[in-house]
Amino acid sequence: MRNTYLWFIQLVTGVLIAVLAGIHTVWMHLDAILGFFGIDVRDSTAWHSMIERSREGIWAGLYIALLAVVLYHGLNGLRNIILELTPSARTERIVTRAIIAFGIVIFAWAAYVPILLLST
Amino acid sequence: MDKQKNEQITFRIQRYNPEKDSQPHFQEFVVTSSRGMTVLDGLIYIKENLDSTLAFRTSCRMAICGSCGMLINSYPHLACHTQIEEFHSNRLTIKPLPNLKIVKDLVVDLTPFFETHKAIKPYILHHDGKEMEKPTAEFAQSPQSLEAFLQFTYCIKCGICISACPTSASDKLFTGPQALAQCYRYCADTRDEGEMERFPVVDTDHGVWHCHLAGACSDACPKGLDPALAIQLLKRRMVSQAIGLGRKEPPARIVPPPAQTKSKVPFPDFTVKGSK
To answer: How close is the nearest chain A Cα to the Cα of B12, in Å?
Structure first.
């Protein structure tokens, strides 16, 4: 039932993207609305604000989680599109392994910054 | 179209004889049609009077056998079930069903279609093999349980859904709406216990998860089935089973058949004198 689990995770990550990217978008771009509710985002798009946020565990966790779900959802979707072109079994294996490797590299590279900031 | 008034209809038919032709080409025939005439009637007229080499499948001529599926004016139809006058045109373009290899003219190779159908084990699977072979009892199945899958039993295996499916067009290894709908039909049947044998067949890289819910299969089905619904219900069933959630309906009980009762009305044994 491997493909069933992969698809279920695709559904779950889709929902999580809506939630986490929603929080991210609201925080970054709807400062006027947040200000109406008394939340001061302190120039959220500025570099120093981003660095300060990444030092907080909850924000670092949100960014890393958002990165993970977006990578899974996008790369699994890309893999499914490529598989619909019915390549050979060997090509399918190469594509799957390449996508997994690409995802791991990007995750490690992008998650490195908030993890480093958390530890300093 | 008036019953008395006949119209000249041009049938533009794709021809292809693999023994002679390098590629398909079109040939036109003019048929005099009248009210009530189906496309199949036109094809039979052409074969009997104009060109006996025209190849197409036909059998029941009443939309129950599924033989005469073909592309008529760019949409898959059963030729026997399609009136000429519903196109409101005096020109019909007829081609074989797409997404299937052409054998000759309007005849396509349905072998992969039937092989895929066979692969999902389209029969009741029950642990009591002896009872299945030589039944001594009955399954008690409620009307509500039957309603859950009844419409999908009406499939006539015509192949029109496969031809309409955009995923089948791009992914030649896709299981297809017909087999997936039949997989659901048997899994949803409370008499069946073969769910876990069928799921691995459709849980593949080119199985149920490649359905994008285009809905073209349901739109094209000549029997009014909804294969897209069956596929979505199958996906739900598989996810529920994988994550251990969801209510499982109880299997149909096996009950002894009703006892033979004496007739309340005194019918005579034989109505024809002397017969026995």
So the answer is: 32
Whether ipTM > 0.85 holds is no
Question: Is A81 touching B (CB cutoff 8 A)?
Answer: no
Q: Where are the alpha helices (DSSP H) in chain A?
A: 2-29, 31-36, 47-54, 57-83, 89-119
A19-71: pLDDT as tens digits: 999 988 888 888 778 888 887 777 777 788 877 787 788 888 898 999 999 99
- Please name every residue paired with B92 in a beta bridge, in sequence order, or none if there are none: B11
Q: For Cα atoms B258, B264, B270, give the angle at the middle one, nearest 5 degrees.
A: 100
End-to-end Cα separation, chain B, in angstroms: 55
Give me the pLDDT at residue B246, please: 73
The fold of A2-117 is 3 helical TM bundles of succinate and fumarate reductases (1.20.1300)
A84 reaches B (C-beta below 8 A): yes
Instruction: Collect all residues of chain A within an 8 Å Cβ-Cβ radius of residue B212.
Output: none
Which amino acid is located at B76 in the chain?
P
**Please, what is the end-to-end C-alpha distance for chain A in angstroms?**
43
The beta-carbon contacts of B131-138 under 8 Å, at least 24 apart in sequence, are B131/B254, B136/B256, B136/B257, B137/B254, B137/B255, B137/B256, B137/B257, B138/B254, B138/B255, B138/B256, B138/B257
Q: Measure in Å the smallest separation between the Cα of A81 and chain B Cα atoms.
A: 9
Which of A2, A3, A9, A15 has the highest number of chain B CBs within 10 A, making it the mutation to test binding with B? A3
What's the rounded Cα separation, in Å, for the pair B58 and A7?
A: 41
Q: Could you tell me the residue ranges of all domains in chain A?
A: 2-117
Residue B235 touches partner A, C-beta closer than 8 Å:
yes
Of B167, B205, B239, the CB nearest to A8: B239
B7-15 vs B91-95, strand pairing mode? parallel
Contact status of A88 with chain B (Cβ, < 8 Å): no
What is the distance between the alpha carbons of residues B228 and B206, in angstroms, rounded to a whole number? Answer: 16
Identify the residue whose tokens are 């599924």: B66
Going from the C-alpha of B107 to that of each of A45, B54, B55, B245, the distances in angstroms are 64, 10, 6, 46
Q: How far apart are CA A11 and CA A14, in angstroms?
A: 5
CA gap B48, B42 in Å, rounded = 10
pLDDT higher than 80, residue B92: yes
